[in-house]
Amino acid sequence: MLRIIPVLLLFVCSTALAELQPLKVSPNGRYFMTADGKPFFWLGDTGWLLFSKLKREEVIKYLDDRKQKGFNVIQVMVLHTTKVVNAYGDAALKEANVAMPITTPGNNAGDAAQYDYWDHVDFVIKAAAERGIYIAMVPIWGSEVKAGKVTPAQANQYATFLANRYRSQSNIVWMNGGDIKGSDSMAVWQMIGKTLHEKDPGHLITFHPRGRTTSSIWFHNEPWLQFNMFQSGHRRYNQDTSAGELHYGEDNWKYIEMDLRKKPAKPTFDGEPSYEEIPQGLHDSLEVRWNANDVRRYAWWSVFAGGCGYTYGNNAVMQMHRPNDTDGNYGVTNYWYEAINAPGAAQMGYLKDLMLSRSYFDRVPDQSLIAGEAGEKYDRLFATRGRHYAMVYTYTGRNISVKMDKLTGKSIKASWYNPRDGKYTTIGSFANKGVQEFDAPGEVKEGNDWVLVLDYL
Length: 457
Fold this sequence. Notes:
The protein has 13 helices and 20 strands. It is of the alpha/beta class. The chain has two domains: about 350 residues, TIM Barrel (Alpha-Beta Barrel); about 90 residues, Sandwich (Immunoglobulin-like). The longest helix is centred in the middle third of the chain and has 15 residues.
């Protein structure tokens, strides 16, 4: 019996497709840029199971929403497991072997004999490109490799297949690994990284590591790794029992500082922080859940510390949870199409907007602008500056004292920027001398976050 798959007409904007080219690393090694040298602020969303769980019309609904909210990267697993089957019942692999992808002649969505797992991946990638969105693809999730289901030889064949199929697609970024330490199955990760880099040199590659680790620990000096990514994880301060140097708790900005100390300079960012609507600590569904305040805090802290972007996540969206699913994880209580409207998702775009509103490649973290103690944990202030501006973020709305004589220009125009709605409130103009204290609006409390914006006149 012929299985009919709804065919969606995609109105391709040739101009948009022409403008969307593979990303590059900026000359200073700190940020991303487009092919023509314009700033690119990575604002990602974790749509991990997008390829396997959503049908074509659902893909369009999701991508349209993320485009509207300002996201420009979606992080996706190509293979969640070696036995993965998509929403149309198509298996990705023969005999669960990554060296044997199942492909069919043609890609007609109305013909079950033609439309296969990889055609559906192609559809998603192209639909994203039409919306100015990059797809950051994890070839295979780390747990499958750690379980011994992929040999280095199979990894070479699989990575070759991926490179040959997608090297001509402009909106691809490769994420080797998948929630795993680089030291677990190192030979496989090295093989995937080297093969992709050799056969698809036009696309950037990183490594998605285990929680509370960063790719730089294992691969910073590897030629195939062009930028770093860390997973700050889902634990609050008193849940972090990690041993050694990376006992950071919620202080995700410390990973940024760690990575930026390494040479050569490579961009870095939090590719998996605490997700909105997921239990704190991840596994106990009765725990308090991370909310919009928390995801904003992680975003602003890490970017002001020098991050080249940020990836947001939501519990239901990352697993594309649907009605009648029997595999819901982490106490998920709603569905992906409801969760895309969680408040934290809409607020992520305000960070990107502010970062791109002023000179970009010259921006650096600079805590020396803060007079007195920067503070600890939720009370900490974070300062960043460019050639003609400075900014200071407070998560609690505490007063901010600034060493004005460290700023240049004849005078300084001060404003408050609201991370919750993206609106400015003018404060006034000040001389760039001495110490000036700024009183943030509202009472001091968690989630009353503000950005003090200082423009040099």
